[in-house]
Amino acid sequence: MIFVTNNAHKLQEVSAMLGGKIALQNLRDIGCTDEIPETADTLEGNALMKARYIHERYGTDCFADDTGLEVAALGGEPGVYSARYAGPGHDSEANMQKLLTNLEGKSDRRAQFRTVIALIKEGKEYLFEGIVTGSILEEREEGEGFGYDPIFRPDGYEYSFARLGDEVKNRISHRARAVEKLVEFLKQ
Ligand code: IMP
Fold it and tell me: What is this structure's pTM?
């Protein structure tokens, strides 16, 4: 099955969740070097846009995902703009810094990661959603992972995703929950 992504970390994360049940190929494996547009203003729209792009050109079954960090006190921001919150060309450090600055002095630290997976199978489209609720820490914690992991603490845990590590994160994350639904569907 083709996973429409260039992110090696994500491919590894999702492959680990599938436990070898489904072999995944990424964009490089199928020789696609295009910059696939992600210009929708919702996670659902972006996931569908990426899956449709590959399905239209390669005619194969495939799935794509899109994720956002939705912060309650910021009206759901950065949401679909999570990757480029601090502006184009900025990295995760800048994004986290901007978020911490925008939350300074705010007592409501609630946030959630939300992943939407769009699957195209035999020409039909399906959406799967995974959510993990938590809160934004005052300061970053060192560890594994990527993106906002150093400042996101999932509910029910004492530490950030970064400090909890990939093994715990892969069991409880937004992406894990969306992938679980995808796998359940594919098994039927
Ligand atoms: P994408 O749609 O999966 O590429 O995610 C968009 C942005 O959300 C990424 O660039 C990250 O900043 C953030 N993000 C997505 N998934 C995660 C995660 O599992 N941990 C931390 N940040 C994430």
Answer: 0.93
